[in-house]
Amino acid sequence: MIHVLDLKFLGYDNTIASFLIDTGDGLALIETGPHSVMNNIEAEIKAVGYDIKDVKHVFITHIHLDHAGACWAFAQNNGATIYLHPFGKRHLANPEKLMNSARMIYQDKMDELWGEMHPIPEEQLHIVEDETEIKIGNTTFKAWHTPGHAVHHIAWQVGDVVFSGDVAGVRINQEVVMPPCPPPDINIEDWEKSIETLRKINPKKIYLTHFGEITDVNHHLDSLQKRLHAWANWIKPHWEAGKKPQEVTPAFQAYVKQDLLNHGVSEAGVKQYEAANPSWMSVAGLMRYWKKKKDE
Ligand SMILES: [Zn+2]
């Protein structure tokens, strides 16, 4: 049984999820959300009949703060093991660099958005290679290295479902799927390969961190692929013209909003999408992608 926990990020419903599985040998959490919503995680775990203290295994899809920001607290308070991509390990063992770069971007909004992050002892960080299976109690978690959104990204397969982190996009209230494109790792070619990996797994369901369960897997992935290209191609001429991300963001945000409205998303829905996947981040991430591609 998979419990979808709504972490009510910034007070919004259905923007960041965490997933709880009772393995029979301790609780496993896939994604922790940011530390700023720790109280909500605790309340959501309680609401489905469990105690946060029994979370002994934490699987993270990647180390971005909205996915892994609270995992140190589970390591510290519960002695939990954190399962992650090899490229993420040094950042969680010593989160100073991660937090400094976040602080440069978010400045005085750090506490409200993300909260704190503290080092995790190396012996609690369990790195997982591609296609490795981790068996805990009655549940097997299989790691699929899936770069494109982030180089340190894993999609976790459990039986015939996949927890896709950000690599299968952001889709709220079963509406439109959008590709989250923050700096610094966006790579469209790698992302395409990862989408092919997801197709090959052929899961019955995908669980999106932003947000929840989807069952029309092929249609969803087709639509993600289409928008990924559309977004990258929208940004390209602005990058070629030498514009700065902040000059381009208002027009990009309007383009995304119009796309959402055209597909029947409400004004309130547009706000949820923007909270889960801010436009300015995708502008910065896609500009960086084009620059790297030229420098190659
Ligand atoms: Zn991410």
Labels describing this entry:
alpha/beta, 19% strand, Metallo-beta-lactamase, Chain A, 6-stranded mixed β-sheet, binds zinc ion, 296 residues, 11 helices
Characterization of this structure:
The protein has a single domain, classed as Ribonuclease Z/Hydroxyacylglutathione hydrolase-like (Metallo-beta-lactamase, Chain A, 4-Layer Sandwich), CATH 3.60.15. The chain has 296 residues and is an alpha/beta fold. The mean pLDDT is 96. Helices cover 42% and strands 19% of the residues. Zinc ion is lined by residues 62, 64, 67, 149-150, 166, 180.
- Quaternary structure state of the chains depicted: single chain
What is the averaged pLDDT score?
96
- Terminal Cα separation, in Å? 46 Å
How much of the polypeptide forms β-strand, as a percent range? 15-25%
Shape: globular
What's the β-strand tally? 14
Bound molecules: zinc ion
Radius of gyration: 18 Å
Q: CATH H level: which superfamily? A: Ribonuclease Z/Hydroxyacylglutathione hydrolase-like
Q: What is the CATH class designation?
A: Alpha Beta
Question: What summary fits the major beta sheet?
Answer: 6 strands, mixed
Short description:
The protein is an alpha/beta fold.
Topology:
Elements lengths: L1 E5 L10 E6 L4 E4 L7 H10 L7 E5 L5 H4 L2 H8 L2 E4 L4 H5 L2 H11 L3 H4 L11 E3 L5 E4 L2 E7 L8 E5 L2 E3 L6 E2 L5 E2 L9 H14 L3 E4 L3 E3 L2 H24 L4 H18 L4 H10 L2 H17 L1
Parallel strand pairs: 3-4, 4-5, 5-6, 10-13
Antiparallel strand pairs: 1-2, 2-3, 7-8, 8-9, 9-10, 11-12, 13-14
Helix pairs in contact: 7-8, 8-11, 9-11
The chain binds zinc ion.
Zinc ion (ZN) binds next to loops.
